[in-house]
Amino acid sequence: MSDEAKQATTQDKIKNFEIRTQALAKMGGEKAIAKQHDGGKLTARERLDHLFDEGTFQEVQLFAQHRSTLFGMDKKEIPADGVITGFGRVNGRTVFAASQDFTSAGGTLGEMHAKKIWKVMDMAITARKPFIAINDSGGARIQEGVPSLEGYGGIFYRNTIASGYIPQITAIMGPTAGGAVYSPALTDWIFMVKDKSYMYITGPDVIKAVIGEEVTQEQLGGAMAHAAKSGVCHVVTENDKDCLDKIKILLSYIPDSCQSPAPLVASTDSEDRLCPELDKIIPDKAVRAYNMKSIIKSVADHGEMFELHEHWAQNIIVALIRVMGKSVGVIANNPMFYAGVLNVNASDKAARFIRFCDAFNIPLVTFTDVPGYMPGTEQEWAGIIRHGAKLLHAYSEATVPKMTVVTRKAYGGAYIGMCCKQLGADYVMAWPTAQIAVMGAEGACNIIYRGDIAAAEDPAAKRAELIAGYEEKFNNPYFAASLGAIDEIILPQNTRKRIIAILETMQDKKEARLEKKHNNIPL
Fold first, then answer.
1. Catalytic residue list contains 414
2. If you classify domain 276-439+475-506 with CATH, what class do you get?
3. pLDDT of residue 8
């Protein structure tokens, strides 16, 4: 064969490669892509283009094809087997991703589809980099049968192995149903898009057929349903681009892995900045609410906070902030909802966040204003004892720097639950407005002085006198400080300065624990 003939053959092969690659890039075809756009959704590739820095995405296993022959599958081509996988850079950092392609067989998951996801998850674990799943799928590919179920099993296994080792984020950008919902639930954070994304074990049609209940797709598993009612969704977004932009913001707060430091951002805020507005934020009357988020924003660099679980268990706040450019996790009671009490959902929400921050070496700051645990049969029968124990376990287990600021009420078991010193807080501060006691003055006096009040000529006057005396002696930060339970009483305006100082002091904290396989958290 002449050199000219060899060259022509080589060029033909290159041309063939280009044709094949271009065909796969068209995904399910123009009509399917148009339908995706008409539904207000980006395609799988457009989502990756928006997520990754321009020109950095490297696709993996583009030419993977299913090998099923049942139910006419031998005649059906599914470009890239319905999922785009690979890695690239997000704001300069390496990230791995899998984006399901709804335009190709509805993004259904079959054997090779799953194995492509396995591949990039394995690479992410080995490389110790974050993994992002973009879900938009009709579920298991029924025509493939058991291999599709095994595909989900392999994903769930890898989600679990990677848990606490690398950050895992899921963007729900379309339907996610049946067994497919459990991979998102095993990841660290779930983002959903309003009116475009759905999650449920069984859909509305099956529910109606089996139990006769009528419910719409949005009511059952829409973004707000899971954000406000089930707590499955952590961040609600307006559209695909907003979703991906918010994921980028979250990534900016968290490290590549448990063995990497969180990103350090250059801060133009001042370490000496006072927060004089905090001197006036606590109302004179203890029964009045105030905005705890204002305190968090005052302390944070430039007033910026990234709140998670904003719509669920609103009586407690969890958020990421920066303090002099360093990532910090914040847990705070919210007096605006149920007076900031601890209940089943608030305990779960805070415990999960604490464990995430601890896994990825993000220091914790707790702002306490808690009157106690929510009373009543509803909470008791829902397992407040078991769920409340999760919060105690999470704080006690965490070895990152932990500091607590008591702004107002810190009563009873809830005082303990919000990271008191005996639960492992490295430093506990209190404002002069703090009220630290077993319970409120009125309740305490009704128990301690029951006989004295009953025997008094004027029981109401006697009760008022005793309550005032109790508040003066016990219901303040000074008695707790005299016992060493509080390390420092500070002016509210100095809160940011003191947090900066303690964080800097404790940044090299090392705490060894008993050698064991793992803890047994009261799930």
1. yes
2. alpha beta
3. 65
* Token reading at 174: 């379309």
Whether 3-253 shares its CATH topology with 276-439+475-506 is answered yes
Catalytic residue among 88, 151, 178, 222: 178
Which pairing describes strands 175-177 and 131-135: parallel, antiparallel, or unpaired? unpaired
Q: Is residue 78 a contact partner of residue 104, using CB atoms and an 8 Å limit?
A: yes
φ, ψ (nearest 5 deg) of residue 225: -60, -45
Question: What is the pLDDT at residue 253?
Answer: 98
Q: Which residue is it, tokens 């123009």?
A: 30
pLDDT recorded at residue 287: 86
Region for 65 from its dihedrals, namely left if φ exceeds 0, alpha if ψ lies in -120 to 50, beta otherwise: beta
Q: Of 203, 412, 413, 424, which one is the catalytic site residue?
A: 413
> What is the model's pLDDT at position 78?
85
- CA 227-385-312 angle, to 5 degrees, is 10
Collect the ranges in the chain with pLDDT lower than 50. none
- The single residue of 105, 300, 414, 437 carrying the catalytic annotation is 414
Active site residue 340: no
* CATH of 3-253 given 3.50.50.60, 3.90.226.10, 3.40.50.150, 3.30.565.40: 3.90.226.10
Contacts 24+ apart (CB under 8 A), 32-35: 32/103, 32/104, 33/103, 35/103
pLDDT at residue 445 in the model: 79
Active site residue 413: yes
Is 484 part of the annotated catalytic residue set? Answer: no
